[in-house]
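QA checklist item 7 of 12: single-chain prediction sanity check.
[x] sequence parsed
[x] length recorded as 270
[x] structure emitted
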Amino acid sequence: MKPTWKRLAPPALRRFARAAFGWRWFRGDYANWTDACAAATGYDDPAIIERVLAATLAVRQGQAAFERDSVLFPDPAPDRPLLEALGVVRDCSAERLRVLDFGGALGSTYWRHRVWLTGIPDLAWDVVEQPRLVATGRNHLADTPVRFFSSVDEAEAATAHDVLLCGTTLQYLEDPWQTLGDWVARSWRFLLFNNLPLHRGKPDRLRVQHVPPGIYPASYPVWFFNRERLLTCLTGRYEIVREFASEEVWPVGWGQYRSTGLLLRRKDPS
């Protein structure tokens, strides 16, 4: 096979090329949520939901292995660190796994990993999402193991969950710190975060993410968190069971943020 420039070029040169000539995913540096929203289109768009639904149905019908942000992938590729973290929760819950998937779209994490989840005898996978996605899920996926709810309280009233899963969602909330405070005050045994963009030594930063039109035309505010602040918020009542490198990479300016995953277990009240 003839070598390409990607194989020959050093990583620093490839990063430079992406920053200089590639799609600029993250733009601006905003003082507050209002200003960032004014520069964004938002993600509550029926056209986006239709694309996510079409991709999810294709996965369900076996036409693709999984989808991410409506993009279909033909071959199975589990997010192994995430799957291993869910395995820890299952092992600590007598082979039960009741997941509250916050911001889980139409259950993309479940559909991606369903082959590895089907052997769990007591499995519940409940998604909390925006009203339009909840309605879409209930209309088109009611006969599947995935259930849809408009709020955490509604989902908790239906089932007591072992773990709150928040993958690639916390950073898109207007006030993530208030949400984190609410979650920490609840009684879930485990919290599981995936694809968190964290940095050290600098305050939180607010940018606008621009999705390439080939995926779907959208832009929305996104936070990049200070790692120390986030861990301080979580570790008062929770202890870190494992920390892992998530698969998402966030190209910002001339550099990249690696993603972080965290599995946390509630501390003994005593």
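[x] summary fact logged: The mean pLDDT is 89.
[ ] second reviewer sign-off
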